[in-house]
């Protein structure tokens, strides 16, 4: 059997005044790259938060690695928008920012050892930032900071990486570099879920798409079956087909 990473079934969610997700279902297997697209306010971030366990899943189900969330937390990494991810005035070095994400797997009071340093170096190497290890996070450019935040998510060696608009507010050259890094991780076997307002960029890297349409339903489709034109049709509310 294929290695199932996440299964979402009949997920429905509403905030007190706003119905957001209605009957969303999809499954991802190891090495899949899911791109989530849809207009502002469609519910993309809400879905990410539900998967991360930051919002309660009340109707429908989300199964990760065939288990409940509390047991698999350490197998999931998360990168948020650069703009709201960190107070960059904070006087921490790149290494400290990345290393801090090892706390969750170590318990708060165990000292860091050589093995931790190795993992930090490894994670920074993956994003091409190892030589910046001792620099203050606040002294880096936006694109460099975001690469450090990706390393921070990678240091715990996640099998599933969730990214909500990871390239917002970052200069175009850095966006390309960051997308290339993420694509490489994916080719190495990491399963990725990413929302991005830049649909063409997302189409280049993803093999599955979840498209939130104007009329409140969603389509889960294989990238190979779609062209940009058909995606515009779906976004505009023309239903194409649905995979169960
Ligand atoms: N904490 C919240 N309380 C109430 N409504 C919210 C909250 N967060 C988001 N919403 C509403 O839910 C809808 C979906 O939001 P969101 O998931 O952030 O959309 P997206 O990420 O696709 O732009 C929007 O209408 C938004 O205003
Ligand atoms: Mg959002």
What would you note in describing this structure?
The chain is an alpha/beta fold and 244 residues long. The chain has a single domain (4-235), classed as Rossmann fold, CATH 3.40.50.300. It has helices at residues 44-51, 69-72, 94-99, 103-106, 114-126, 142-154, 172-187, 199-205, 228-235, and strands spanning 4-14, 19-29, 33-37, 59-64, 76-79, 160-164, 191-195, 208-212, 218-222. The strands form two sheets. Strands 5-6-7-3-8-9 form a six-stranded mixed beta sheet, with helices on both faces. The radius of gyration is 18 Å and the shape is globular. Bound molecules: adenosine-5'-diphosphate and magnesium ion (MG). The site of magnesium ion has 3 residues, from helix 1.
Low-confidence stretches: none
Largest sheet, spatial ordering of strands:
5-6-7-3-8-9
The fourth-level CATH homologous superfamily is P-loop containing nucleotide triphosphate hydrolases
Number of helices: 9
Please name the CATH architecture.
Answer: 3-Layer(aba) Sandwich
| Estimated share of beta-strand residues | 15-25%
Q: What is the strand tally?
A: 9
Termini separation (Å)?
18 Å
* Total tally of structural domains: 1
Which molecules are bound in this entry? adenosine-5'-diphosphate, magnesium ion
Radius of gyration: 18 Å
CATH class: Alpha Beta
Query: Whole-number average pLDDT?
Result: 87
Structural class label: alpha/beta
Name the overall outline.
Answer: globular
CATH topology title:
Rossmann fold
Sequence of secondary-structure elements: EEEHEHEHHHHEHEHEEH
Helix share bin: 25-40%
């Amino acid at each position: 059997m294929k290695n199932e990473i996440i299964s979402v079934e009949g997920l429905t969610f509403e905030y007190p005044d706003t119905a957001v997700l209605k009957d969303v279902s999809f499954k991802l297997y190891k090495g899949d790259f899911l791109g989530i697209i849809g207009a502002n306010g469609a519910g993309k971030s809400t879905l990410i938060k539900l998967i991360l366990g930051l919002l309660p899943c009340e109707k429908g189900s989300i199964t990760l690695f065939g288990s409940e969330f509390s047991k698999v937390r350490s197998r999931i990494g998360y990168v948020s928008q650069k703009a709201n991810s960190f107070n960059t005035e904070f006087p921490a070095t790149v290494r400290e920012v990345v290393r801090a994400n090892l706390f969750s797997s170590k318990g708060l009071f165990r000292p860091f050892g050589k093995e931790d340093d190795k993992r930090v170096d490894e994670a920074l190497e993956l994003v091409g930032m190892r030589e910046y290890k001792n620099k203050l996070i606040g002294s880096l450019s936006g694109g460099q900071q975001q690469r450090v935040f990706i390393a921070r998510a990678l240091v715990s060696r996640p099998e599933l990486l969730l990214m909500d608009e990871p390239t917002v507010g970052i200069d175009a050259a850095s966006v390309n570099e960051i997308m290339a890094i993420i694509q490489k991780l994916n080719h190495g076997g990491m399963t990725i879920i990413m929302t991005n307002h830049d649909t063409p960029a997302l189409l280049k890297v993803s093999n599955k798409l979840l498209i939130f349409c104007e009329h409140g339903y969603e389509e889960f489709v294989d990238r190979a079956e779609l062209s940009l034109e058909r995606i515009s049709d779906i976004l505009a509310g023309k239903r194409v087909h649905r995979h169960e």
